[in-house]
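Entry 0007
Protein: Histidine phosphatase family protein
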Amino acid sequence: MAITVYFVRHGQTYLNRYNRMQGWSDAPLTEKGIEDAKRVGKELAKIKFDYIFSSDLSRAVNTARLLLAADPNTDIKEPIQEPAFREIFFGFFEGANGGAVADIVGGKYGYHTFSQMAAGWGTDELKDRIAKADQYGDAEDAQRFWQRMNKGFNRLRNLPDGSVAVVVSHGAAIRSIADHYLEGVDQNVSPRNGSIMKMTLTDTDTHVDFYNQLHIPDK
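Output (structure tokens):
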């Protein structure tokens, strides 16, 4: 069994632009975000994919629709919405200024950005620390995130052998997957809006082939 998956981060939103925490909360795509989606659609036209999934959050669904419209080589009209591929839920911190949240969670340890915290602690410990800091207890910790995300991976693994799939997901979620499966990934680098991560899933392995690329390498 071998399944090829191209994870795509959605286009830029207004909350991205304003450096606001955006997990399950949602914001429209900016003009740049629309162009991000169209550009990655033209890039994905280089490959023949059989399925396209998206998180059920509107920024991912709309990115998927725009990239499909920009790809002249696909007959797929609508993404399959899969809640398992949602962004991490930040609970009480949803919508807050990202820099302020980084100071609350990591400031006393010398970390003042999410990239610094991810590089210092790893993405799973970072989730746990954010969840612990949430006074309402709503933010997802690593265990809850992976219980959800693994349902999505199980769905991908059950596709027909040899399938190629596109998944439109989110920045922190994609960085978590890369951290989990790609040894030596630079956690100081968050996946860019409209970037691509390629994975190969087999019966015995989950492998990241490349991460955070704006272009699919020519064969």
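Curator remark: The two ends are 22 Å apart (CA to CA). Residues 142-157 form the longest helix (16 residues).
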